[in-house]
Write a structure and sequence with these properties.
heterodimer; A: alpha+beta; Nucleotidyltransferase, domain 5; Alpha-Beta Plaits; Rossmann fold; 12-stranded mixed β-sheet; 9-stranded antiparallel β-sheet; globular; B: alpha/beta; 2 domains; two-stranded antiparallel sheet; 12 helices; 36% helix; 17% strand; elongated; magnesium (chain A); PAZ_dom (chain A); nuclease (chain A)
Chain lengths: 796, 338
């Protein structure tokens, strides 16, 4: 159909603009609301108090009767090269005008040409006469999906005109970097932007973005790794540290992902050029870019070129010529580094809006940009949109018959519930405490503290089997094999360093071969006397959860409901397997959770495994409740930009299939909600003339939501510094017949139920549990854990 | 010439590397030889020669001039600094400017250049423009070296598909004799010497035809014109600047300071890290101990090459690490910067 051709043409246009994959990042054209009758009229909630909010959205305005004219451009004789096609067409700027967007086939103009078909004549360099036929194919109204894609392309053009540098999907300002010399980091300030059709208007959603760049080459990083880990573990360390990272090169404006390191190659090695001749890297870089490669012993990095998801060959890169961008996991876990970074990247609301204002001022002040906008007949509202949101009432926390109020501003009830009996405390009658010799004191301190804090929680704790080991992975494993019995409730290990291999080995053994809950503690966290009681309390709570205990609950008004959470972990280093974590509630109070996970094997879709998970979850639910649930809520996290269509068209039908397979007379009400943490929208409460983060429980379901979706935002957590990020919820399937207000409230309630944090978190607890599970399996276990553990939160 | 023989050739002649690349390589070689600091490309079109030249480390000023602004704009962003140029500012300074204008007009922005290239330019000039061209380039700009390339019409019969001229926009194509007499006359008139060469070798046995592209390299015979002389040529600016990029450079105080601070603090951090971990070593993880063997892998480790004299050893006192300034300056990277 014509519609399809149009959009594929536009994607070409955006590809030329260098954006990488041909994917619709904004999930345009996935219209899920139309199938849900009960939210046709309204999808807004009503409870809570009103709060005035502003946001980072700016209205796009066009002159009245604005339209975009789409033309097809044909050549006779046929011209292949896109550049030639452009050059031939642009010889006729007097006819088509100076303002145009052309991808080689489709031409967009801001005004209509005199006749429907225009014939133009050009001559090529070779003196060949070419007839160009420009035919009007479409008059696009401002809200058409093609127009929206077009706006985004034009906006990126503007950013380029402002001399911003494109890295990945966003644009950054290179001329005013923030330098953090302690860590050899540089931070560039930039902007993310997208223009979309929102509830009533087309708006630009712009946000401040920071790009972390490293003032060192990949070779520098290899050097420092070499001096850190030594010869033996050098290659492994490089692979771990570097694979998956994005690099910039010294000679072109492209980014590459490191997919592999070729240790058998070096810059003296040769490669085959496109014309078939062989050339060494040293020679090539000298000839092409006048770059001398100094270290001829360095290995070669391999980056795969992907197009439409398929590998299309690979590119070799020289470490010395590549600069790292972004942060590694290791850097992320470096507390000091993150603290130093946060000073620059965590902007408080006022400052964030000020930086954004600067971008808009650039746009407003730049003559060329304004000219381009004028030529297309477009302009922006330079003041951000404001509207009212709602703050829903705080949830009460119940623990063993007692109800707690806490300050809703802080979204935390650690203090209030300290020393109060748990809903279900599991006795610890038989347990192991394993430590190395140098941690003997630490182990005793932990033990004494645990004995002090557990009685008031109602946890009965016996003396453990204290086992001293030498600090080696094999010894730990041997001790586990010899000393764990079927009666063992839990194993606690005190580890000296955060070395992953030891942790992985312990977890792998105790999650698969010998299914016993385990708790690993770093000796360092126990070394501060002033915090030991707090730490011991947290450890006691966590141990209790891992053994099947329950801590607190909130009021869940729905009966016979099963809540499901799904999240994915994508392994970027080894084998590139994906893992889906799946959890489902087991009881009325949603305090107990069943879990499984799917380790994707080659050529298998994750969704097949998820179906099996749902079946076993239903079986378990019915075992616990003596009936099947009449309502099922699925909170689906881990859906990437542009994957919504797949989810709606493949995954949801699979859920329905699965329910059908349970029994012909079984038809529960199903609600599927896509949860998205990474969204561009930010909300600011206008309080006392300044901008603040909105309080927890802020719900937004107007103005900045999408008309074709049943969606809303909730700000559930608080942040100490920077701007709070709202979570986006998109109800893609719903036969619950519940009012939007109730779905919003249920979602917010579930954000209170994550037992590893006595406070409100960013996503519903099942999503966070599923994330924890998938992460543990993906990082440490690499296969499905033993099902014996499936009714406990062993993965916390 | 035997007609059949000639036709056979029209089938075969194909240059490897392509002729345009050979012309660019010729300019690049010339730059390598004379190391000019300021280079201007007249008729720079889509800027591909300028893009190649920006990698030549001797060049500090690059300018392009073309009569068509659109073709320059098409790929001018390739002349902008790359993110890495900001991350690791280079030693040299580099400014790239594109001007929209005609080689028949004088503009003071074209003064003071060491090398001016006119690759496949003159054959596009109308007669009136060609007449003014020598005065503008040799008389007014008066660079040390001028390179002019143009098609050799004697070669045309060997090229397939060429009817009258090689490009419809060509106003003329000269034989070797025509080009050489024009060049010699121009050189004589403006006190330059000229040497003739070319790229695109003729087929064996037909050497008389000459190169496919004929090139004249003009070298000024009189010494550098001083600033004072140039200021005697007051001319109003007539070109329009369409693009200007100033590359980050260590010659700029701002970038130099940042670079020095970055290196000093980072290296001091490493020293601190080493000293601190040395203190803790005895209590360290036993699995790690055996790993501190001498390295087999021979990376040229910059820090490893540190020559630190005994009397300026950094030391730890409490929670602070003292690093003598002399040590700081002995870091190769810092040393190179200061």
């Amino acid at each position: 159909t014509i519609g399809l051709q149009v959009s594929s043409g536009l994607q070409d246009l955006s590809l030329r603009d260098r954006g990488g994959r041909r994917r619709d990042f904004h999930d345009l054209g996935v219209n899920t609301r139309q199938a849900m009758v009960h939210v046709q009229e309204s999808k807004t909630g009503f409870s809570g108090r009103m709060l005035k909010l502003t946001t980072n959205h700016f209205r796009l305005t066009s002159r009245p009767q604005w339209a975009l004219y789409q033309y097809h451009v044909g050549y006779s004789p046929e011209m292949e090269a896109r550049r030639l096609r452009s050059a031939l067409l642009f010889q006729h700027e007097d006819a088509i005008g100076k303002t145009h967007a052309f991808d080689g086939t489709i031409l967009f103009l801001p005004k209509k040409l005199e006749s429907k078909v225009t014939e133009l004549f050009s001559r090529t360099r070779n003196g060949e006469d070419v007839k160009i036929t420009v035919t009007l194919t479409n008059e696009l109204p401002p809200t058409s999906p093609t127009c929206l894609q077009f706006y985004n392309i034009i906006f990126r053009r503007l950013l380029k005109m402002l001399n911003l540098q494109q890295i990945g999907r966003n644009y950054y300002n290179p001329s005013d970097p923030i330098s953090i010399p302690n860590h050899r980091l540089m931070v560039w300030l930039g902007f993310t932007s997208s223009i979309l059709q929102y509830e009533e208007n087309i708006m630009l959603c712009a946000d401040v973005s920071h790009k972390v760049l490293r003032g060192e080459t990949v070779l520098d990083t290899m050097h420092s790794l070499h001096s850190q880990v030594g010869e033996e573990r050098f290659r492994d360390a490089c692979a771990k540290e570097l694979i998956g990272l994005i690099v910039l090169t010294k000679y072109n404006n492209r980014t590459y992902r490191i997919d592999d390191i070729d240790w058998d190659n070096n810059p003296k090695g040769t490669f085959r050029k496109s014309d078939g001749s062989e050339m060494s890297f040293v020679e090539y870089y000298k000839k092409q870019y006048n770059i001398e490669i100094n270290d001829s012993m360095q290995p070669v990095l391999i980056s795969q070129m992907k197009r439409r998801g398929n590998v299309q060959g690979s590119v070799a890169l020289i470490p010395e010529l590549c600069f790292l961008t972004g942060l590694t996991d290791k850097m992320r876990s470096d507390f000091n580094m993150m603290k130093d970074l946060a000073i620059h990247t965590r902007l408080p609301p006022e400052q964030r809006q000020r930086e954004l204002g600067r971008l808009l001022t650039y746009i407003q002040k730049d003559d060329n940009v304004q000219k381009e906008l004028r030529n297309w007949g477009l302009s922006f509202d330079y003041k951000s949109v404001s509207f009212t949101g709602r703050v829903v009432q705080g949830e009460k926390i119940f623990q063993s018959g007692t109800m707690f109020d806490y300050n809703p501003q802080f979204a935390d009830w650690t203090k209030e519930t300290r020393g109060v009996p748990l809903i279900r405390a599991v006795p610890v009658d038989s347990w192991l405490l394993i430590y190395s010799r140098r941690n003997y004191d630490v182990a005793n301190t932990l033990l004494q503290s645990l004995f002090k804090v557990t009685p008031s929680m109602g946890i009965r704790m016996s003396k453990p089997n204290m086992i001293e080991v030498d600090d080696r992975t094999e010894t730990y494993l041997r001790v586990l094999q010899q000393r764990v019995t079927p009666d063992t409730n839990i194993v606690v290990c005190i580890l000296s360093s955060s070395r992953k291999d030891k942790y992985d080995a312990i977890k792998k053994y105790l999650c698969t071969e010998c299914p016993i809950p385990s708790q690993c503690v770093l000796a360092r966290t126990l070394s501060k006397p002033q915090t030991i009681m707090t730490v011991a309390t947290k450890i006691a709570l966590q141990m209790n959860c891992k053994m099947g205990g329950e801590l607190w609950s909130v009021e869940i008004p729905l009966k016979q409901v099963m809540i499901v959470g799904i999240d994915c972990y994508h392994d970027t280093v080894s084998g590139k397997r994906s893992i889906a974590g799946f959890v489902a509630s087991l009881n009325q109070t949603v305090t107990r959770w069943f879990s499984r996970c799917v380790v994707q094997s080659r050529g298998q879709e994750l969704v097949d495994g998820i179906k099996v998970c749902l079946q076993t979850a239903l079986r378990n639910w019915s075992k616990w409740n003596k009936c099947l649930p009449s309502r099922i809520f699925v909170y689906r996290d881990g859906v990437g930009d542009g994957q919504l269509n797949t989810l709606v068209n493949y995954e949801v039908p699979q859920f329905l299939d699965c329910l059908k397979s349970i029994g012909t007379d079984y038809s529960p009400r199903l609600t599927v909600i896509v949860v998205k943490k990474r969204v561009g929208a930010r909300f600011f409460a206008e309080i006392g003339g300044g901008l603040r983060n909105p309080p927890p429980g802020t719900v937004v379901d107007t103005v900045v939501t999408r008309p074709e979706w049943y969606d809303f935002f909730i700000v559930s957590q608080t942040v100490k510094n920077g701007c709070v990020a709202p979570t986006h919820y998109n109800v893609v399937y719903d036969t619950s017949q519940l009012k939007p207000d109730h779905v919003q409230r249920l979602t917010y309630k579930l954000c209170h139920m994550y037992y590893n944090w006595s406070g409100i978190i960013r996503v519903p607890a099942p999503c966070q549990y599923a994330h924890k599970l998938a992460f543990l399996v993906g990082q440490s276990i690499h296969r499905e854990p033993n099902l014996m553990l499936s009714d406990r939160l062993y993965y916390l | 010439m035997d007609k059949n023989f000639q036709e056979e050739f029209t089938q075969i002649i194909k240059f490897e590397p392509p002729l345009y690349k050979q012309r660019y390589q010729f300019v690049k070689d010339l730059v390598e030889k004379y190391k000019p600091k300021k280079v201007a490309d007249l008729g720079c079109a889509d800027c591909s020669l300028l893009w190649m030249l920006k990698f030549c480390s001797c060049i500090e000023v690059l300018a392009g001039l073309d009569i068509c602004a659109n073709i320059m704009k098409e790929k001018m962003h390739t002349l902008s600094p790359l993110p890495v140029d900001y991350l690791q500012p280079s030693e040299r300074s580099l400014t790239v400017t594109l001007h929209h204008g005609s080689v028949a007009h004088k503009d003071p922005c074209m003064l003071g250049f060491d090398l001016v290239t006119c690759i496949e330019l003159i054959e596009h000039l109308e007669e009136s423009e060609l007449k003014k061209f020598p005065e503008v380039v040799f008389g007014f700009m008066a660079p040390r070296i001028v390179v002019i390339s143009t098609p050799n019409s004697e070669f045309n019969p060997l090229l397939p598909r060429v009817k009258l001229y090689r490009h419809p926009d060509h106003k003329f194509e000269w034989s070797q004799a025509q080009f050489q007499s024009w060049a010699l006359e121009t050189a004589r008139c403006y006190d330059y010497s000229v040497e003739f060469t070319g790229v695109g070798d003729p087929p064996t046995g037909m050497e008389k035809v000459g190169f496919c592209t004929q090139i004249g390299v003009f070298v000024r015979k009189y010494p550098q014109t001083g600033e004072s002389v140039q200021s005697e040529k007051p001319t109003e600016a007539v070109y329009k600047t369409v693009f200007k990029a100033v590359y980050p450079s260590l010659k700029d105080e701002k970038y130099l300071q940042n670079a020095v601070i970055r290196e000093v603090i980072f290296t001091a951090q490493i020293i601190k890290h080493r000293l601190m971990s040395k203190r803790e070593e005895y209590s360290d993880d036993p699995e790690r101990k055996s790993k501190s063997q001498p390295s087999m892998y021979c990376f040229s480790d910059d820090l490893g090459k540190l020559v630190v004299e005994k009397n300026m050893e950094p030391f730890v006192s409490g929670n602070e690490v003292y690093v003598p300034l002399a040590t700081i300056f002995s870091f190769p990277k810092v040393n190179r910067l200061c």
